[in-house]
Amino acid sequence: MKEMKWYLINMACWTRAMDLMYSLFVIPYFFIPTLVVLPVGVFSLIGVPTQIQLVMLVIIITAEMCRLFLLFLLFLSTSASDFFDFDWDSPYESTEDVRYLGRDDGRTPSERGEPHPSTQAQMNERFKEDMLAVLQKRSRAHFDDLARYFNPNIQIQSCFASGKNLNADQLYQLMINLSAYYRVWSNVEFENRDLAGPKYAFVIMRHNATIHDGSQIAGKWKYEASFKRLWNYFLIDHLTFVGSCRGIPQTAPQDPLEDPDHFVERVRTKLVSDLFLPYGYSKKLENFEDFGDWITEAAQFVVCDEPKMNKKEFIKFMADRYHGIRRYSDNVFNYTKNQQDIEITFSTTWEAPNTTLYRDTYTFRVKKEEDYVPQLDNSFSYWRIYWVTKKCTVDRTRHPAILDGANNLMEVNKRFCGMIDGENWDVFQSFLDLFDPKDTKWGACVGARDLGYDKIREHMEKVAMRYAKCVVTQVNIRNLIRAEFATTFTMSRATDIQEQEEVDVGFSGFKDKDGYWRMNRMYFLCDETTQKRKFIEL
């Protein structure tokens, strides 16, 4: 019995030590078992009966087990976030198969920051994603992403031209031709074969597809890649379309292989769930070039208040205009089918970097267009956009005239400087939207002949050409109830940014019938006693 007593004393001491370790270093608020462990050693020293000590020991062990279980639950709760890595930029809606929803955000693996494929698994995953994006959505960005990992001596072949090696552009033409021919994808499978260890990748992709007449055909792709020590990642050595070419027409059909509704749906998905994705990510030039693949080279572009432009200039215009915009809302997509073409109308509201809201509306006209496919040595008919119209931007930022014109005052000054600074939105149109077209008078100097609304833009374009930077240095409020104030702008010359001039401009407005502020007076103040710039002749 004496040995049993010392055994209990030792166990109590060790338990006490473990309890202190957990309590002090793991999680301090699980300290309750300490109040139970300490008396065990004390009871052993003062001669408490063994039966009571055994009961206390059971209590201690039970408490310790409960605490360890709670610690285990705590560990799971703190590490659970690693298993739920949500991509907040992914689209909120999609018409694609749910199996690919997690990757349907429009971005390529490289744009998401994925590393170079240095393992077999990474190479296979990139091949799967990029191939499906090209074949299902004709994504040029994903094709270029995959082409980055083509071996300079890559062998690309297809059953259309057996024994002939294709280049990257020919491969892309082949893939988009197949994309138009395949209407609905199904039973997509990827078979990985480990033939030569981890430094070699071999994958076979199989799928079924429904074509325009409702029948199904099978497709098959094969690729081989190997790890290159010089680059320290995988490169694709062989890529082959080994599916049967007998079911795919070799002659040019009279009508496009793709159903018009299917093409319209792809355009809708590209606009609503990619380029103008609500709470989306910043777009780059490549994203809009991808959309440009659906536009003919000879397309006509009519953009409000912009000079005539070609396809390349229009794509760059869109990329520059929406670069950095991360918030879109109220996307509206409609279309009508006429006898000869399809007319698509798309509108979106977007928030500029200066928090101003604007609404853009585009009209796309679609018709049949023949495109030569070099692999088949023939021309095929596709649906292509041949006319693009962009209406003038509409300002959606309106300030209620509840108390005074303070908010309107700041908005006027912000947009005035926006024209000088050359922001990437319709700066002149947004400034004009503040004024009432029917009752606006303005002048180069007080006392000079009043001019109308239609002359404001012409004058402000001259001002913007003269200066490169604008800063509000002083605001003199005359009457906030009528939004009447004068602002001193300090502006740097475009030819020499160190040379600055002060410009005083007076504004006044009124509350319209809907309860919103509108401006209707603007005068450039010319003070002969100071060095203020005269704006009579620019």
Automatic annotation (TrEMBL):
InterPro entries: 7TM_GPCR_serpentine_rcpt_Srh, DUF5382_C, DUF5382_central, DUF5382_N. It comes from the Eukaryota. Pfam families: 7TM_GPCR_Srh, DUF5382, DUF5382_C, DUF5382_N. The keyword Zinc does not apply. Keywords: Membrane, Transmembrane, Transmembrane helix. Residues 100-115 have a biased composition (Basic and acidic residues). Residues 117-249, 258-383, 414-519 form the DUF5382 domain. Residues 100-122 are annotated as: Disordered. The chain crosses the membrane at residues 20-46, 52-76. This is Uncharacterized protein. It comes from Caenorhabditis remanei.
